């Protein structure tokens, strides 16, 4: 199994750390992983994206043109990465701030109101965990217990008291993700 | 106990330096390798092993601090990125001339000039063709994974002390910034003067007691002596070619076409090989792990087997010249690469192979010099 993922959004949304937690989760189940950020003169509010690959085999290129899954968190990223999803792949997005919704009919499209749900839960910072939960519901490539182990590795110990909140956010995302409907077509995983 | 971690290439290199028992790191920050000094500082290595980590006032200061520490037989290293390495070249030439062991790390970014902070492999010429002045070469290791970023630190010091010569680890922004799984080796103790003398001879400036004084210099105003020094260096380089060449062959057994790529380009090219093979095109990959010494004979051997070679590099065409020299124009050798910090995708590499090598009818029967220099 190899899963090639791009996570793209604004800097400050937790794009890179979501990727890191996913990568750690892969390690927890003995997979090969790579995490390749777009680095640059980037800052809070600018665009940020990361390519994460989880595989049972040695990973060749950490840098890709097309992906099995695109997790898209702003309009610029939608413009750039909707077309980069492999046919039959998955596009997951948060409609918050999106003016041009995806239009492809050869991929599975799912949405989750990550920003809204995180705000309702009283902590906007767990937005990325809501989205991660949504992704793991659509594509259960890592077990929740491994994500929690990954979180423990990824967060320094002084933040470990926040792990239950993160777990709650992931579960929230899992429960609230829904297929996005274009005209009469409904995508199911 | 060895330890499994998820780390950036730059961090893995820094951690490996502490664990390898390196005595001193002198550096000056520059993107995309500032994590090296950041990580080292955060680890308080002076407490862990007694290793000195110092942010110098400039690149020039840093490389000359390396010269000073290396003169005393200590394991000293520095790291920088392209424009910073250009500044260090004078010092690197002096290290080579004075026959000092040292490790220099270049996490390459786009150039020339201040260029861009994105990944590039445009410092190939600078790394393998001298860079600084004089008749010298660097032993050049090109890591293509985070694991190799860690492993090559110790390998580089082994070579540096074996030959009393500076060694370059030539990485780039992609390998430096990406995270992968890495297995870290156990902590090694730093080398004592007694061990140094026992293992590598009594050449360093360790405090003269009951021996002739050791003089570390790259200056020899007597021409005969200077020529002898140059010949001594030359012998080392010949020995490196004989004993310490490193390369990796991937899917070369039945290959009809060959990609040659190192570092990050080798990783991306490996995916291009997978895509090609899925289409039924038999492509192999030769990855030079050392850029000097260069796998010349291996390339010449493969040239008898394949119909054409594509040299894939994140630059405007540098290593391609060495590949052409190695295969002696027996088969067409062309270059493909992106520049300016743009990274080629596996699909682009495959397309270039199909367009430049396969579709152009560049077979071994059309082996004119012109066709190979397109």
The first-level CATH class name of chain A = Alpha Beta
SS class of chain B: alpha/beta
Q: Which CATH architecture of the largest domain in chain B is right?
A: 3-Layer(aba) Sandwich
Q: Which pair of chains forms the biggest interface, and how many residues does each contribute?
A: A-B, 22 and 27 residues
The separation of the N and C termini of chain A measures 17 Å
Find the CATH topology of chain A.
Pyruvate-ferredoxin Oxidoreductase, domain 3
Major beta sheet summary of chain B:
7 strands, mixed
Number-wise, the strands of chain B total 14
The global form of chain A is globular
Share of helical residues of chain A: 25-40%
Number of helices of chain B: 15
Q: What is the helix fraction of residues of chain B, given as a range?
A: 40-55%
Low-confidence stretches of chain A: none
Strand runs of chain A, count:
7
Number of domains of chain B: 2
- SSE string of chain B, helix = H, strand = E? EHEHHEHEHEHEHEHEHHEEHEEHEHEHH
Q: How much strand content do the residues of chain A show? A: 15-25%
**What is the end-to-end distance of chain B?**
53 Å
């Amino acid at each position: 199994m190899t899963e090639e993922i791009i996570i793209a959004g604004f800097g400050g949304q937790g794009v890179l750390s979501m990727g890191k937690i996913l990568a750690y989760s892969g390690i927890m189940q003995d997979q090969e992983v790579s995490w390749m950020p777009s680095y640059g003169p980037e800052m809070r509010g600018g665009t940020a994206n990361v390519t994460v690959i989880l595989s049972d085999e040695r990973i060749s290129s950490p840098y890709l043109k097309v992906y099995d899954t695109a997790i898209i968190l702003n309009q610029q990223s939608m413009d750039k990465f909707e077309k980069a999803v492999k046919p039959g792949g998955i596009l997951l997005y948060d409609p918050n701030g999106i003016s041009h919704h995806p239009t492809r009919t050869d991929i599975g499209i799912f949405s989750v109101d990550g920003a809204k749900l995180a705000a309702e839960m009283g902590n906007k910072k767990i937005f990325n965990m809501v989205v991660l939960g949504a992704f793991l519901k659509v594509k259960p490539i890592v077990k929740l217990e491994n994500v929690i182990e990954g979180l423990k590795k990824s967060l320094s110990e002084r933040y470990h008291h926040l792990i239950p909140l993160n777990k709650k956010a992931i579960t929230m995302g899992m429960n609230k993700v829904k297929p996005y409907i274009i005209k009469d077509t409904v995508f199911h995983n | 106990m060895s330890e499994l971690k998820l780390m950036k290439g730059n961090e893995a290199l820094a951690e490996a330096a502490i664990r390898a028992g390196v005595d001193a790191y002198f550096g000056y920050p520059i993107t995309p390798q500032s994590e090296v000094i950041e990580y080292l500082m955060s680890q308080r290595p002076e407490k862990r092993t007694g290793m000195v980590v110092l942010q110098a006032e400039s690149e020039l200061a840093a490389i000359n601090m390396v010269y000073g520490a290396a003169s005393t037989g200590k394991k000293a290293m520095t790291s920088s990125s392209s424009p910073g390495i250009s500044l260090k070249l004078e010092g690197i030439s002096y290290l080579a001339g004075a026959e000092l062991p040292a490790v220099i790390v270049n996490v390459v970014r786009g150039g020339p000039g201040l260029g861009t902070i994105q990944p590039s492999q445009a410092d190939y010429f600078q790394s393998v063709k001298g860079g600084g002045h004089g008749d010298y070469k660097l032993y050049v290791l090109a890591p293509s994974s985070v694991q190799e970023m860690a492993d090559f630190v110790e390998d580089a010091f082994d070579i540096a002390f074996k030959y009393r010569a500076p060694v370059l680890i030539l990485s780039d922004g992609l390998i430096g910034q990406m995270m992968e799984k890495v297995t870290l080796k156990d902590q090694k103790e730093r080398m004592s003067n007694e061990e140094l003398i026992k293992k590598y001879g009594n050449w360093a400036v360790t405090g003269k007691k009951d021996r002739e004084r050791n003089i570390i210099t790259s200056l020899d105003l007597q021409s005969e002596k200077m020529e002898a020094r140059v010949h001594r260096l030359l012998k080392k380089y010949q020995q490196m070619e004989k004993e310490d060449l490193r390369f990796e062959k991937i899917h070369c057994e039945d290959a009809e076409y060959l990609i040659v790529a190192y570092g990050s380009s080798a990783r991306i090219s490996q995916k291009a090989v997978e895509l090609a093979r899925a289409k039924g095109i038999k492509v192999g990959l030769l990855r030079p792990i050392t850029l000097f010494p260069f796998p010349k004979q291996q390339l010449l051997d493969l040239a008898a087997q394949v119909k054409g070679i594509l040299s894939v590099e994140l630059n405007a065409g540098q290593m391609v010249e060495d590949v052409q020299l190695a295969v002696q124009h027996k088969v067409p050798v062309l270059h493909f690469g992106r520049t300016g910090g743009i990274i080629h995708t596996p699909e682009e590499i495959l397309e270039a192979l199909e367009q430049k090598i396969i579709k152009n009818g560049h077979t071994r029967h059309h082996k004119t010099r012109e066709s190979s220099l397109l």
